[in-house]
Structure formats: structure tokens, C-alpha cells
UniProtKB/TrEMBL annotation:
Signal peptide: none
Annotated Pfam families: DnaJ, TPR_8
Annotated keywords: Stress response, TPR repeat
TPR repeats: 201-234
Source species, domain of life: Bacteria
Protein name: Heat shock protein DnaJ domain protein
Biased composition range(s): Polar residues: 284-301
Domain J: 16-87
Segments for region (Disordered): 284-312
CDD domains in alphabetical order: DnaJ
């Protein structure tokens, strides 16, 4: 369906799943699930409170074409982690041009000017906008646009704190530079800061995500291997590769890449999440599997990740 929003994050990505569901970026899965169930009840034909048949049909279309896909994307750990990585990359690039943005909505303007706890204020603003997001079918797109612009403002503010460039030396004057001999070694005056280039591995991660959504984790492994040829020490790629191996019940390979990810970056969130999932598998196998009982080992792993047991 055609999406009539060209505002906020919709200028940079196809869909802002967080804005569609009305949850803050980085929300826990439990919060996302509760919000999805609430929105689904509002839009489902059996429980929708719309007065006319046409409004109910529109509500059902929004549910099937926007809300359900957003939930499916954010409910999968791998896709949620990859999506967070993409949003982080967008924030890092745009933070360098923070002053060039002109936000239309009051919420985004308030967050940009905020001197308080940005995280807390952002979550409060999201909660305020999401309160009546799906109260009326006619205003849903408007509310999603407002939330998406708020999300964009949040990414810029949060990233600008750590990525804003600082100039340690003043620019050399033209007259002074003329007095220097060509053989004189000196540091060139800082020029206009260039935006950081997008990591070349992002394209590999995006392709891998399409395979992950289809459950084709073998292809995800191939994509991440190719990505690591470009950036061998990329912790995010090692972490995602570890997750893909976990989905294939290859805990040993998963452990290798998760350990490597944490070795290069002990604070990488994706690698830390992968380590927690690996620990769950190991703990489940230790508690539920008897020595030599391979069938129970297979069952405990796939149960953790929502897979189906193979029929004997």
C-alpha cells in the first residue's frame, strides 16, 4: 500500500516500525508485544469501534499492511537488532548536521531543545503521542508522522553527544600560510567536517535480514562471512553471525563468533545480546538434556526460539 508519510525517519527508511506501533526506540520485547496487542484490538474488525463499514475496512487494512508487519519485524530478535543498527547508523550520520534540521512538531522541537534527561523525556513524549494514536482512523497517519519525527530527533540528539566534532586548533590564516615553506611539515587546518561514510557491511546486513525473515539462516551465515572479509574485526557482524549459528543449532560455532565479537568490543550491544542467548541455550541443555539423549537436546534448543520439533 502507498504510504503517505515523508516525514521523520520515513525520509531515510521505508517504514518506521517503532512509530507505527507507538513505542520508543529500544523498547523491550514485552513492551512491544503489549502495545501491539492493544493496537490490534483497536483495529481488528471484531473489536474495532469505528462507526461505519468503510472506517472498519480502513482500520483492518492498517492492521494487516502496517501494524502486523511492524510487529513481525520487531518481534524477531535478529531483525530487531539489525534494525537498531541501521537506526544507529542514521543517527550517527545526521548528528553532524544537527543545526540544519527544522522540525515541525512540538514534541520533536521540545526534545531537541531539552537540557534534561533526554531518554526519560523522549519516552514521556512517545507515551503522550501514542495515547490516542489509534483513537481515530482519520488521524492515524498524522500521529505516526509525529512519532517518526520525534524518533528522528531522538536519534540525532542521542548520537550528537558522542559524535559532535571538536576543533582542537584554530584555522590558519591565509597570510600566515603563505609564509610557510613548501618543505615545512604542518598539520593542515581543519576543513568542513565530512559526514562519515556508511559502513560497507550495512548492505550485507540488510540482505541477510531478508533471508532471516524467511528463516534461511544458512544464507545469513554466508552474508555475514562475506561482510567479515571487508571488516574482519566488526563486532556487530560477529555477533549477528553467532546468532545465525544459534538458529542452526551450532552452539560451538556461535560461541566462537560471539567470543570474537566481545573481544574486539566488550560493550557491543548486539554481541552482548547474542552472548545472553548463547548462555540460555547452554543452561537449557545442561538442565534439560541427559547425556546421550540427542532428541531432547534438539527439542530444548528449538523450543527456546519458537521452532517446531521435527516429527519422528
Amino acid at each position: 500500500m502507498a504510504f503517505p508519510i515523508q516525514q521523520g525517519l520515513f525520509q531515510y527508511i521505508d517504514l518506521d516500525h517503532y512509530a507505527i506501533l507507538g513505542v520508543p526506540i529500544g523498547a523491550e520485547l514485552k513492551e512491544i508485544r503489549l502495545r501491539y496487542l492493544n493496537v490490534a484490538r483497536r483495529l481488528h474488525p471484531d473489536t474495532c469501534k469505528a462507526l461505519t463499514k468503510a472506517e472498519k475496512e480502513r482500520a483492518n487494512t492498517l492492521l494487516s499492511k502496517l501494524v502486523n508487519p511492524a510487529w513481525e519485524h520487531l518481534s524477531r530478535e535478529g531483525s530487531r537488532l539489525e534494525y537498531s543498527l541501521i537506526l544507529s547508523q542514521i543517527g550517527q550520520r545526521l548528528a553532524h548536521n544537527e543545526q540544519q534540521f527544522s522540525f515541525k512538531t512540538k514534541a520533536a522541537q521540545q526534545l531537541i531543545k531539552s537540557q534534561k534527561n533526554v531518554e526519560l523525556e523522549y519516552k514521556n513524549l512517545v507515551q503522550s503521542l501514542a495515547g490516542d494514536q489509534y483513537a481515530s482512523v482519520d488521524s492515524i497517519y498524522q500521529k505516526i508522522a509525529q512519532l517518526s519525527e520525534l524518533n528522528l530527533a531522538y536519534l540525532i540528539v542521542s548520537q550528537s553527544k558522542s559524535s559532535r566534532p571538536t576543533l582542537s586548533n584554530p584555522p590558519l590564516s591565509l597570510e600566515y600560510s603563505r609564509t610557510l615553506n613548501t618543505d615545512t611539515i604542518f598539520e593542515q587546518p581543519p576543513q568542513e567536517e565530512e559526514l562519515p561514510k556508511e559502513s560497507p557491511v550495512i548492505s550485507y546486513i540488510r540482505r541477510a535480514q531478508s533471508y532471516a525473515d524467511k528463516g534461511n539462516y544458512a544464507q545469513v551465515v554466508l552474508e555475514m562471512r562475506d561482510a567479515l572479509k571487508l571488516e574482519p574485526n566488526n563486532s556487530t557482524c560477529h555477533g549477528l553471525l553467532g546468532l545465525a549459528y544459534l538458529r542452526q543449532n551450532q552452539a560451538s560455532m556461535a560461541k566462537i563468533h560471539i567470543t570474537t565479537a566481545l573481544k574486539h568490543d566488550p560493550n557491543n550491544e548486539i554481541a552482548l545480546d547474542a552472548k545472553r542467548e548463547l548462555d540460555k541455550v547452554i543452561t537449557a541443555n545442561d538442565q534439560q538434556t541427559k547425556p546421550g539423549d540427542s532428541s531432547k537436546q534438539s527439542k530444548s534448543f528449538w523450543t527456546l526460539f519458537g521452532g517446531r520439533d521435527k516429527k519422528k
